[in-house]
Amino acid sequence: MKRLVIILALAACHFVISMAAFFLSFAAGMGRFDTGAAASSSESALAAASTVLQFPVFPFVLSIFPKAVPFPLEYVPFLLNSLLWGTCLYLLAAWLMNRRKESRREIPAI
């Protein structure tokens, strides 16, 4: 149960951050849409962060559904992606902690 809570907490954090990055990068792009001006470095960094946080689910979903999906379903890929990220982050942290514990055991006593 504790693992599930940690995974869901990580997924919720990822969801909030990825949605914020997505909407902020979209708003920044729309702000300069009619001017034709180049994107600023901060806007480019925000767009890159949004792209990274949307990986790997969004390229897959866009290849299957190139057109928009109905309103309630459009947040499902965000949720699935966040659950995937939360699970992977939890597994990575657990693996690193196990590895650190094992390396402490292998140190010979002097």
Task: Give a written overview of the molecule.
This protein is an all-alpha fold and 110 residues long. It has one domain. The protein is built from four helices and no strands. The chain is elongated, with a radius of gyration of 19 Å. The termini are far apart. The model has no long low-confidence stretch (mean pLDDT 85).
Write the layout of secondary structure elements.
Blueprint: H1 2-31, H2 41-54, H3 57-64, H4 76-105
List keywords for this structure.
about 110 residues, mainly alpha
Q: By helix and strand content, what is the structural category? A: mainly alpha
**DSSP summary, beta strand count:** 0
- Describe the main β-sheet briefly: none
What is the H/E order? HHHH
What proportion of the residues is helical, as a percent range? over 70%
Beta-strand proportion: under 5%
Structural shape: elongated
Distance between the termini: 40 Å
What's the gist of this structure?
By secondary structure, this protein is mainly alpha-helical.
